[in-house]
From TrEMBL:
Keywords: NADP, Oxidoreductase. PANTHER family: ASPARTATE-SEMIALDEHYDE DEHYDROGENASE. Residues 7-139 form the Semialdehyde dehydrogenase NAD-binding domain. This is Aspartate-semialdehyde dehydrogenase. It comes from the Bacteria. InterPro entries: ASADH-related, Asp_semi-ald_DH_pep-lack, NAD(P)-bd_dom_sf, Semialdehyde_DH_NAD-bd, Semialdhyde_DH_dimer_dom. Belongs to the aspartate-semialdehyde dehydrogenase family. The gene is asd_2. It holds the Pfam family Semialdhyde_dh.
Length: 362
């Protein structure tokens, strides 16, 4: 990277994920937040005023962002002229979000999105940077479809799968065939705190709209292949999921059961987890955790409060690997849902796309 930082806009900057983007990008060595945008209701206010009373993070609002005037995220032309690329975390309908992101891409502004609107679009890469960095190549086909030269859309997958998919991935050579997973998901995944959602105190809700479908289907695209200018979803493994909302501020835990074509030894599994390193680690990207995966031998780890911030919230922690009576193995895995699972995963994706030349200064 050159010394000059890329100018970044954050769309949906006043929401919880938008706030996390703003916090993570403070003092970033490659990117500088020069513009924040939200709905028309917030436009025209100073950022600090727009989030007053609803700043959800423990850290303070970054001084460099606090005084920025919030723009209207729908003002595509003006925002595109002012930044090199944008992160997107808008709170709009799926159809509205899809159109907005394509409008930015057509205006030659790359979009790295936390939203789900384009996760199913065949020529939009949905990336966990350590797992499928090669999927960025589909951007060439997407640009042809959109009539763009430098604009494009890249997305990150849903937060519910960010713990168990990285744990399964190093084991793919053994042919995982069936996976059953139950996720225990923090309230920040709904954009809430205990103050704003008192009903979650001392409570578990056994339903999160859309999460189970995403947990079952999105890994198939991540593990898919590039063919004819699109990503073709993998057919295996078959995944069944249940997703529960639990009274935790941050951090999604997954209880995972897996059956293989060729059952590995316990030692094989542990060694593959220990040695796994993806392209972000090899490139030394600013947000890449080292190590990406950490296994705990203690029966009581990982724990959400103790381990969600591993690798500055970008790492995945694993524990309790043991034989299972119905499957080959079971284990638990943990990831930080608003860092690795949301804004942080998007920042790492943008770093990879920048390192590989897909995102450049205008």
């Amino acid at each position: 990277m050159s010394q000059k930082k890329l100018k970044v806009g954050v769309l949906g900057a006043t929401g919880m994920v938008g706030q996390r983007f703003v916090a993570l990008l403070e003092n970033h060595p490659w990117f500088e937040v020069t513009l924040v945008a939200a709905s028309a209701n917030s436009a025209g206010q100073k950022y600090a005023d727009a989030v007053k009373g609803r700043w959800a993070l423990k850290s303070q609002i970054p001084a460099g962002t606090a005084g920025l005037t919030v723009k209207n995220a729908s003002d595509v032309a003006a925002i595109s002229d002012a930044v090199d690329f944008v992160f997107c975390a808008v709170d709009m309908t799926k159809e509205e979000t899809a159109k907005l992101e394509e409008d930015y891409a057509k205006r030659e502004t790359p979009v790295v999105s936390n939203n789900s609107a384009h996760r199913g679009t065949p020529d939009v890469p949905m990336m966990i940077p350590e797992i499928n960095p090669d999927h960025a190549q589909v951007i060439e086909a997407q640009r042809k479809r959109l009539g763009a030269k430098r604009g494009f859309i890249a997305v990150k997958p849903n937060c519910s799968l960010q713990s168990y998919v990285p744990a399964i991935h190093p084991l793919m050579k053994f042919g995982p065939k069936k996976i059953a997973v139950c996720t225990y998901q923090a309230i920040s995944g709904a954009g809430k705190t205990f103050e704003s959602w008192p009903e979650m105190v001392d409570n578990v809700i056994p339903f999160i709209k859309g999460e189970e479908e995403k947990s079952e289907k999105e890994p198939m695209k991540i593990w898919g292949r590039l063919e004819g200018g699109k990503i073709v979803a993998a057919q295996d493994p078959v995944i069944t999921a249940q997703c529960l909302r639990v009274p935790v501020s941050d951090g999604h835990m997954a209880a995972v059961f897996v059956q293989f074509e060729r059952k590995p030894s316990r030692e094989d599994v542990l060694e593959l987890w220990k040695s796994f390193s993806g392209k972000p680690q090899k490139l030394g990207l600013p947000s890449a955790p080292k190590p990406f995966l950490t296994y705990f031998e203690e029966d009581s780890r990982p724990q959400t409060r103790l381990d969600r911030d591993a690798g500055n919230g970008q790492a995945v922690t694993i524990g309790r690997l043991r034989p299972d009576a119905l499957f080959d193995y079971r284990f638990v895995a943990l990831s930080h849902n608003t860092v690795r699972g949301a804004a942080g995963g998007a920042v790492l994706t943008a770093e990879l796309l920048t390192a590989d030349g897909w995102i450049q200064a205008k």
